[in-house]
Amino acid sequence: MNDSAPERRRLAARLAQNGVLTSPWLCSAVEAVPRELFLHPGVFLDEGSTWRPVTAADTDPAEWLKTAYRYDTLTTQLDGHLTADQASDPVQGVPTSSSTAPATVVGMIESLGLQAGHRVLEIGTGTGYSAALMCHCLGADNVTTVEVDPDVAQRADAALERAGFWTWTVTGDGLLGCPRNAPYDRVIATCAVRRIPHTWVRQTKPGGIILSTLGSWPYGTGLAKVTVDDNGNAEGRIIGRSSFMQARAQAVVPVAGDLSARTAYTDSERGTRVPPTMLDDWMPAFLAQLAVPRAQLVRAARSDGTKLLYLFDPERESFAQFTADGDSWTVRQGGPVALWDDIEEALVAWQHAGSPDVDTVQLRVTPGSHTYWIDGNPSLCWEHRLA
User: If 0-12 CB within 10 Å is exposed, 13-18 middle and 19+ buried, where does residue 186 land?
Assistant: First the structure.
């Protein structure tokens, strides 16, 4: 087997040069932990409409190391079961597990502000690479990592042992945390959630930090960093843009079937005040998810190629359908919730506030609610009561 030490040093140097890697202890971890150990049995490389399987067993060792130390996210599972060793030709599928881009992994760990002796809970073990980096600094006994997929958890546990880390690898629903090893100084989620579960807050020490991606769309999500107080609440802000696969328990089932039938009966029809194409941009998409957290944005097309745009909230049986006439848009809405009214109100207020970026959003988590607001703009505030 080729020695990957030069690749590890180059990766650490690149991360440091890009301003992502700043802590000496984490630099030491990146240089010490072989990423290739966490990519067994292989990866899928994106070729546009298909995924090309690449395995260590069938690849020249030097070429395999080049693949393993790409600066990109490497997909390790498709459709909840398929791994690269089970495919010989390019395949189609939806990524369901991956080795996240090193810059993202390292950047998130840096944001935790880890110190010696800290106990960490990681939600979403994935390949186990990020857990290994934290084990290198804190010691394996201080890291608990939870993975919902039994096969993924088993591969990660084996990889961690190959790397010399016998940590707490738990198979289960990460939204429930892991009370056995609580309380924790830090909680980090490498999956996206609609809201921060209060179970994580309860399992975190006062003064402890929770870091998690918030949102349910493939884009327009934000990295939340909150600090737990003495009263069992947590408060903080969105510290930047982020994108992760959705937690399995909250994964959205795509709207399917006859969309024309779903939108046949409307309660209102009017021109829009702002174009729905604003939702193609990150911050408007994030605001839309705050305004209507259960909604899905659906793009479709008629047989003649005419593009269609919808919002659906299946849980509340509501929809908004958009049609364009030149630069003007019309929205038809149906169901008990006027989805576009709520989103449009947020977008107009956001524009009036000067269109601030996602890192101006603050949030508070209590046992009964999630509240979001934008710095200095009391009109831009959303409270979601929890059932």
Answer: buried
| Domain boundary, last residue among 242, 265, 291 | 242
Structural domain count, the chain: 2
8 A C-beta contact, residue 339 and residue 318: yes
CA dihedral 49, 55, 61, 62 (to 10 degrees): 20
Torsion of CA 8, 14, 18, 21, to 10 degrees: 20
268 catalytically annotated: no
**CB neighbour burial string for 306-321, b if at least 16 within 10 angstroms, e if fewer:** eebbbbbbeeeebbbb
Task: Evaluate the CA torsion angle 354, 358, 364, 370 in order and state its sign.
Answer: positive
Listed in order, strand segments (DSSP E) in 124-245 are 143-147, 168-171, 184-193, 204-214, 221-228, 234-242
> Does the pLDDT at position 195 exceed 60?
yes
Q: Catalytic residue, from 98, 99, 216, 318: name it.
A: 98
Within 13 Å, how many C-alpha atoms sit on residue 70's CB side?
Answer: 16
- Residue 2 pLDDT: 65
Q: What is the CATH number of the domain that holds 210?
A: 3.40.50.150
Radius of gyration of the chain (CA): 22
d(CA 213, CA 97) in angstroms, rounded, equals 16
- Domain span at residue 61 reads 5-76+97-242
Residues 30 and 169 in one domain: yes
Q: Residues 9-52: pLDDT tens digits?
A: 999 999 999 999 999 999 999 999 999 999 999 999 999 899 99
